[in-house]
Amino acid sequence: MAFDGIVTKQVVLELKHTIVGGKVNKVFEPNKNEVILGIYCNGKNYSLNISISSNNYRMNLTTNTKPNPLNAPNFCMLLRKHLVGARITDIYSNSLERIVFIEFESYNELNDLVNKKLVIELMGKHSNVILLNNKNIIIDSLRHLDSFSNSCRDILPAHEYINPPADKLNICKVGLDEFRDLVKNEKLSTIIPNSFNGISKTFILSTLAFLDISDSHYSNENISKLYKYIKDIIYNLGTDNVLAVPINNKDYTIINKTSDIAYTDRSNCDLYNKNIIHIQKQQFVANADEQCLFPQNNISQTNFFLDDFYKQKENNEVFVNYKNNLLKLVLSALKKITKKVNNINSKLKECENMDTYRMYGELITSNLYRINNNINISSIFLENYYDNNNFLEIPLDKSISPSYNAKKYFKKYNKLKSTLEIVSAQKLEANKELDYLESIIYELEGATSVSELEEIDIEISENVLFKNNIKNSNIKKNKINKRKVHDEYEPITYTIDGFTLYVGKNNKQNDYITTKLGKNEDLWFHTKDIRGSHCLLKCNGENVKEHTIITCAEITAFHSKAKLSSNVPVDYCFIKHVKKPSGSKPGMVIYTNNKTLYVSPKEI
User: Does the residue 373 lie in any domain?
Assistant: First the structure.
């Protein structure tokens, strides 16, 4: 759901009970789209997050710390100069506008009491944070806008602040009859957001589903029910009667839990059953070096909900972007290797005729006494003693003599023979590189967290295959705090009949459990000729029953590209029969003395 006027009003009314009267003691600007105010109020530390990102614009109390640049940006320094030590006197928004005003009072250098105002405009790509003086003149803003940038007003220092033009109706000032006339014969999810200020399409769609009202076919009774429900929510904003709830874990909406409207079947409504989340956070400790945190507050449900919702959303975006960047890097290398293999195959195809060229040279040389060396001819028919003396037509270059034609064929044969030796070795190496790149792609497809992507990233950065790609690439790296990867990895573990099975999640982990974790008496599993994880069963010197081995094979098949297949071949052997060739790529091993089981993939 977009951070619409209803959500904005609810957040502002919650903040009014929480931070008004507090003093600003910290200001942070983690990135170009975010400002965080640390506020001390009534013996508690709060952290107010203001984001003007076009996708995730919002304002809410937060408990999630973010890394800050070593050198504070200019706007951050300006806010520190004007706001640190200032007391919040009021916070409000007009009607359902997505513009929030925070008023401050502080003392200047002459010890005079001065008033300032922070304006937060939450309007998608036009969002902004603007600091005003007591005369409504702009001191500075996070984004500078003027008429040349397609802005309807100038947001520049020393200019007077002007509210953006309002071109929609206020639903609080529209009666039921006027509301009916306005939406009559129209699609509700389109006409209401387009006509009324502060109401998003997501809110209307979720409300229609909640009230069991059709978007296109509805009665006057349905319209009355919808109108009353919307007004009930607006009149209950700022109370515990209004809740922010998730929709299918991908979006959220605002509901009124105390409305007296008779719903069709409230017990079956997704918004009232297990999907309702009451965010509860117990204790937090203020961090002097990072953003300050805030404790549990019963009147900050929407703030808590938005904090968790957008944190999860941003984490997902970071994960997807990071994964796509790595995948783009691997696919770029894969494209180059594939092109190299195609060139090798074309050269190998040329080498297929090298024995023919040698035969041509031999036949010409053995018949030179029969050929007039001074006659220039384009071809010659000679008896082929390799084919029962059947006549064979041999093409000649008539610009040179037959003897030189023979030398030319031998030279071409020798050249192709050398080429065959070289490109055969090149193809073997290129196929290994292709196999390795496909293993990286398999790892990326199976990665489920940023930490797993970091391990793959480290593996990529250490491989010479990607050095030129990384150097010449214009791909922007994700600005995230990379945790230091442990010397000992954390593979997936299963407990089977009292034994522990380790499953590698990437090539680095595969090498770790195979070469470091495994002992001679342990069993090693891998799908036969199918991309998949290395699996190690710690036997601890005990005999392993057949049932346990079969279960391990089923799990091994599950952690492979054949997880959706059946009757998958899985090889297993003692770890002492698994060797890693010197200089081989990560995850590459050879093994002997193995047995094969055919199982259906299964995860316990």
Answer: yes
Per-residue model confidence as pLDDT tens digits over 481-530: 444 444 457 889 999 999 999 999 999 899 999 998 989 999 999 999 99
Domain count, the chain: 4
Phi/psi of residue 484, nearest 5 degrees: -70, 120
pLDDT exceeds cutoff 50 at 363 = yes
Six-digit token string for 555: 């799990």
Q: What is the pLDDT confidence band of residue 46, given thresholds at 50, 70 and 90? A: very high
Average pLDDT estimate for 351-364 = 91
Please report whether residue 315 resides in a domain.
no
Instruction: Using alpha carbons only, give the angle 168, 169, 174 rounded to the nearest 5 degrees.
Output: 170
Note whether 419 and 351 are within 8 A (CB): yes
Residue 105 parent element (H or E): strand 99-107
Tens of pLDDT along 3-21?
A: 899 999 999 999 999 999 9
4 SS3 class: coil
* Same-domain pairing of 421 and 503: no
Q: Are residues 153 and 25 located together in one domain of the fold? A: yes
Give the number of other Cβ atoms within 10 Å of residue 170's Cβ: 15
Helices 5-16 and 301-351 pack at an angle, to 10 degrees, of: 130
User: What SS3 state is found at 484?
Assistant: coil
pLDDT averaged over every residue in the chain: 86
CA distances from 403 to 90, 128, 352, 377, 385 (A): 103, 85, 24, 12, 19
Same domain flag for 534 and 469: no
Q: What are 253's strand-pairing partners?
A: 245
CA quadruple 200, 201, 204, 206: dihedral, nearest 10:
-110
Lowest mean pLDDT among 27-31, 90-94, 206-210, 238-242: 238-242
Query: Which CATH number covers residue 340?
Result: 1.10.287
- Helix, strand, or coil here: 95? coil
Domain span at residue 579 reads: 492-599
Q: Could you tell me if 423 and 519 lie in one domain?
A: no
> Closest Cα partner for 22 from 55, 53, 45, 50?
45
Quick: pLDDT tens for 384-396.
Answer: 888 888 999 999 9
Question: Are residues 418 and 546 located together in one domain of the fold?
Answer: no
Angle at 61 between CA 449 and CA 319, to 5 degrees: 15
Is 304 within a domain? no
124 and 185 inside one domain: no
| H or E element that contains 30 | strand 23-31
| 275-322 residue pLDDT tens | 333 333 333 333 333 343 333 344 578 998 999 999 999 889 999 999
Residue pointed to by tokens 């003599």: 401
Rounded to whole angstroms, the Cα distance separating 433 from 438 reads 9
Indicate whether 164 pLDDT > 50: yes
Judge if 192 and 148 occupy the same domain: no
